[in-house]
Amino acid sequence: MKLRTILLFGSPGAGKGTQGNILGSIPTYLHVSSGDLFRNLRVQNPLGQTFLDYAGKGQLVPDEPTIKLWHDDIENRIHNGIFNPETDTLLLDGLPRNAAQAQLLDDTLNVVGVLNLFCKDLDIMVERLQARALRENRLDDANLDTIRNRLEVYEAETRPVLEHYGDDLVHTIDSTQTPVRVLRDVLAVLANLET
């Protein structure tokens, strides 16, 4: 059975985590952030060390370990009764990150929509990321060169994923708005996906 899925897209600092956390509180919606999965790994775990090595350079973790980490996590959530694949919707944040990952997940996910949080102002995203670095002690958000590299990597690798899913599934939302206005626009899309 394929998992009913809505993908959350947007460059670092566009507000995916904020919107995902809010939407994940709606009954039958489960928000899963691949970044959170990696950040919650212990350094002693080989995958945790891999994440630190790549994140410290502003690079993405390779596809196979990323997909394996997510797959193991979702299986645990199903096994523990946190996610019911027959009734629940998965809000997937940060995965797939590139076209290869999208193809690896095609047999697992039934993607019914893609929320593309688009922020055209680079300065706003840099400001948000630096503020988040202070609040959450996130090393991957602290250095300006690392931030710019992450934004460039996002553009290069993630744009083809939007093309993979096509215009019919992609809903672009202006994330330069306040979080409440972004949420309003996101909920309008979700309401249409329910019908």
UniProtKB/TrEMBL annotation:
Q: Does the keyword Transferase apply?
A: yes
Leader sequence range is none
Name recorded for this polypeptide: Adenylate kinase active site lid domain-containing protein
Q: Does the keyword Hydrolase apply?
A: no
> Which key words are in the record?
Kinase, Nucleotide-binding, Transferase
Mention one GO molecular function.
ATP binding
Looking at the Swiss-Prot or TrEMBL record, what is one Pfam family this protein matches? ADK
- GO BP, one example? nucleobase-containing compound metabolic process
Q: What InterPro entries does this protein map onto?
A: Adenylat/UMP-CMP_kin, P-loop_NTPase
What organism is listed for this UniProt entry? marine metagenome
Family matches, as HAMAP family: Adenylate_kinase_Adk (MF_00235)
